[in-house]
Design goal:
Distance between the termini: 23 Å
Largest sheet: 3 strands, antiparallel
Structural class: alpha+beta
Number of strands: 5
Radius of gyration: 19 Å
Amino acid sequence: MGIRVIEFSQYDVVVPFVCHRCGNCCRDFYPAIEMDMLPEIAGLINKPIHEIQARLGEDCDAHNAGRPKDCFFLEQGRNRCLVHQIRPEGCRLFPTLTKAGLGKVDCPGYREFDNAVKALSGCENGTAARKATHLKETRPIPEGEWECALKKLEATKASALMVQEFAARNGMRHE
C-alpha cells in the first residue's frame, strides 16, 4: 500500500492509498517482468514457465501493435493480482510514486488519495505542508487536531475503508 506523509511543524499526517479493486490499472496493460522472476511466478500461479513466456510475448506484441490486452496476472471477475506479493516494481510503485500511465487510468483509489492529500495539507491553520513520499518515524497527530483531520478527510467523501485505514495509520480512535 502506498502512502504519503504530510509534514506539519508539530506533527505528521500519514495518508494511505487504499485500492478499490476496480482492476483499471491492469486493463490494457503489459507489465515489465524480469526473466529471473519467472520461476517464482510459475510456482505462485501454478503454470509452466514456457506458457507464461508465450502469453507475455503475445501481450507484448499486442501492446506494441496498439492492441493492448489486460494484464495476464489480473484475475478476471475478482480484479485481483495473482502475483501481488511478488509483483513487478512498476506495479508496486503505481500509482502513488509514479505518474507513468496514470493519465490513461481511471483509478478511484488514486482520486481518493489525491483528494485526501490536498484536503489534509491545509489542516494546520492554512500553513503549507511539505509532502514527503516515504514513511519515516512520524510525529503523532495531537489529540486536538484529530477532529480537524477527520473532518477534512470525510469532506472529500472518502470511503469507509480509507477513513478506517487513515485512523489506524495515524493512531486515532475512530468509530
